[in-house]
């Protein structure tokens, strides 16, 4: 009998950490029979950011992915990551939605539910744990590990004891950023082992370069289940390598009993698969000891870098990473894990991009400060709180206690789009995103973002254009750097550029084309570029309303003729998966609105105009 068991993460956390959660189901299924034969303790294959990525980018039904994996892995436990009362979305859901989601997930193939709360507010785990136990599945309670002045071993031991009393089957120490050190791991596992009888499951990202040592110290002091990832998607922002850990323990009292040769067959497959996703690779997903300060979790860093790249602001990553711990302290040192990692990270990006801390505050930060995600671990910055929410009352109860049942309302809202209870739950997670997804699916027009051909892209870059250059226009010289682009082949293609250090989006509309051979024109007519911000006027006066980050319009809160005061919310945009209210820069009358719900918007374009009074 093996003394240590292994959970394999290649189908979820591995690609979430290294290629922005972009692996498609079709690239998972061919290797499932070999994964199924290994005898892992579990295969983590669902939950986390995979649900969002399926709907948002891959245009796959996440429920269909789960069912296909269940069929392809008949002998394996499928594990998912569940955010307690947040489920897989970015807000708290009513208890009936939590129960419905857990039941549907179990019916569709999930065996092990790893349940955590970003605040370690265990009130937010209770209904999820109860629901998992009710459907006869395995409930793994997770502690979100972090470091701060208020997080010590006694604190984590108390959490572990409470999770055991809830009825959890196993206990996970979830070190989502790779902050554990070998000595701390020894002390923490030993202390929990002395107080709690549950099997301990150890999860640590390799970002800081310490995780493999931590796993060894963990099992030496009582942990019996380890999270590792196949070497094709391991190390750095991901996890210690499965094959290496198996080899390290072979012949010892902790021998996993897993076959390294069989594991390497899986490695060979995924190494080839990974090449297809080269466009989502990031220079920020390797070993980076700065994580010990900024605490950005492995599952977030590849997505954060990709989002900044899409905004033409990847050059400001270091500024964002430096700002994140400052925002975290302002918010009372929450552990950085979804959704708090996105809440803190997006606010840090806004602080950097606007050039003024908390000039713009996301709705999620406001809700956090009002207690709507749970109790903050430490006191929040009073000045930040007052600036964001004023004297609004902070709730002290479990946030979901204030929510009425939602399932019937969601069924009505999604009527005509949803074809099943699964569709209703998809709509519950991401209403606007799901509406578009379900409409396209029902119309048979779903189309995933394209996977670019690396060789063709490299050839095009070499033959057609530089990525950094200077342009002189009307006697003024601009320094231009291309930081990203939209899909090749579109009639209107967005290019993300930096103009003298300012992020811009340029829409290029192809009217005709030229062929290039050896860098020389063959005489055909050149393409004409329609340059501008989605066709909208640029800001021309102090009453123009702009956005600090590219995003999409969620709500237009005013109409032409409305009188507004400086600071009033006039628009809501979604950027980096978080909603942000945009305020009126001046008091006056709304004289023009250039956007509507669903529109994509970019910095340095006028979204709405106010005639100052």
Could you characterize the architecture of this molecule?
The protein has 613 residues and is an alpha/beta fold. It contains 22 helices and 22 strands. α6 crosses α7 (126-134), α8 packs across α9 (182-195) and α9 runs parallel beside α10 (211-220). It is globular. It starts with a strand and ends with a strand. 48% of the residues are buried.
Short précis:
The protein contains 22 helices and 22 strands. Mean pLDDT is 88; it is low at 513-532.
Secondary structure elements and pairings:
Blueprint: E1 5-8, H1 10-18, H2 25-28, H3 32-36, E2 42-47, H4 50-58, H5 62-72, E3 78-82, H6 95-108, E4 112-115, H7 126-134, E5 138-144, H8 153-166, E6 170-175, H9 182-195, E7 200-204, H10 211-220, E8 225-228, H11 242-249, H12 260-275, H13 291-294, H14 298-310, H15 317-330, H16 340-354, H17 363-369, H18 382-389, H19 407-413, H20 421-429, H21 431-443, H22 454-464, E9 468-473, E10 476-485, E11 492-499, E12 502-509, E13 516-517, E14 520-521, E15 544-545, E16 551-556, E17 563-564, E18 569-575, E19 578-583, E20 588-593, E21 600-601, E22 608-612
Parallel strand pairs: 1-2, 1-8, 2-3, 3-4, 4-5, 5-6, 6-7, 7-8
Antiparallel strand pairs: 9-10, 10-11, 11-12, 13-14, 15-22, 16-18, 16-21, 17-20, 18-19, 20-22
């Amino acid at each position: 009998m093996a003394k240590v068991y292994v959970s394999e993460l290649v189908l979820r956390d591995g690609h979430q950490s290294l290629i922005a959660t972009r692996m498609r189901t079709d690239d998972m299924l061919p290797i499932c029979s070999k994964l199924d034969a290994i005898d892992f303790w579990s295969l983590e294959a669902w939950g986390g950011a995979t649900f969002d990525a399926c709907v948002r980018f891959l245009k796959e039904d996440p429920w269909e992915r789960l069912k296909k994996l269940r069929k392809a892995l008949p002998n394996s436990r499928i594990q998912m990551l569940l955010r307690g009362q947040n489920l897989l979305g970015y807000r708290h859901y009513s208890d009936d939605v939590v129960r419905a989601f857990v039941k549907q997930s179990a019916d569709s193939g999930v065996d092990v539910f790893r349940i955590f709360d970003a605040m370690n507010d265990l009130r937010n785990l209770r209904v999820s744990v109860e629901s998992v136990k009710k459907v006869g599945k395995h409930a793994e309670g997770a502690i979100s590990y972090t470091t701060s002045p208020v997080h010590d071993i006694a604190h984590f031991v108390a959490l572990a004891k409470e999770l055991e009393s809830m009825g959890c089957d196993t206990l996970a120490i979830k070190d989502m950023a790779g902050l554990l050190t070998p000595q701390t791991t020894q002390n923490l596992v030993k202390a929990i082992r002395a107080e709690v009888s549950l099997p301990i499951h150890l999860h640590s990202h390799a970002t800081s370069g310490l995780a493999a040592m931590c796993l060894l110290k963990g099992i030496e002091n009582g942990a019996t289940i380890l999270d590792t990832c196949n070497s094709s998607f391991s190390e750095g922002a991901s996890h210690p390598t499965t094959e290496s850990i198996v080899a390290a323990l072979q012949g010892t009292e902790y021998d996993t009993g897993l076959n390294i040769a069989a594991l390497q067959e899986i490695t060979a497959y995924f190494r080839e698969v990974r090449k297809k996703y080269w466009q989502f690779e990031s220079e920020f997903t390797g070993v980076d000891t700065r994580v010990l300060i900024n605490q950005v979790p492995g599952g977030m860093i590849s997505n954060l870098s990709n989002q900044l790249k899409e905004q033409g602001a990847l050059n400001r990553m270091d500024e964002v990473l430096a700002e994140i711990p400052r925002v975290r302290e302002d918010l009372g040192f929450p552990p950085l894990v979804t959704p708090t990692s996105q809440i803190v990270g997006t606010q840090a990006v806004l602080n950097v991009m606007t050039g003024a801390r908390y000039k713009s505050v996301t709705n999620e930060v406001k809700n956090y400060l009002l207690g709507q995600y749970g109790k903050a671990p430490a006191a929040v910055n009073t000045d930040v709180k007052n600036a964001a929410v004023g004297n609004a009352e902070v709730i002290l109860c479990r946030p979901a206690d204030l929510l009425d049942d939602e399932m019937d309302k969601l069924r009505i809202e999604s009527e005509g789009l949803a074809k099943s209870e699964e569709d209703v739950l998809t709509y519950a997670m991401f209403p606007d995103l799901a509406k578009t997804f379900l409409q396209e699916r029902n119309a048979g027009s779903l189309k995933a973002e394209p996977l670019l051909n690396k060789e063709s892209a490299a050839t095009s870059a070499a033959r057609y254009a530089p990525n950094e250059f200077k342009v002189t226009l009307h006697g003024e010289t601009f320094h231009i750097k291309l930081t990203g682009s939209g899909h090749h082949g579109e009639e209107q293609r967005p290019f993300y550029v930096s103009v003298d250090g300012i992020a811009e989006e340029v829409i290029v509309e192809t009217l005709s084309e030229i062929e290039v051979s050896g860098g020389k024109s063959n005489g055909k007519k050149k393409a004409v570029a329609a340059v501008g911000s989605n066709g909208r006027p640029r800001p021309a006066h102090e009453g123009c309303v702009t956005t600090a980050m590219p995003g999409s319009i969620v709500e237009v809160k005013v109409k032409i003729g409305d009188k507004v005061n400086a600071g009033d919310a006039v628009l809501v945009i979604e950027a980096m998966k978080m909603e942000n209210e945009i305020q009126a820069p001046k008091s006056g009358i709304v004289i023009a609105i250039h956007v509507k719900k669903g529109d994509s918007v970019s910095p340095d374009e006028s979204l709405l105009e106010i005639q100052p009074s």
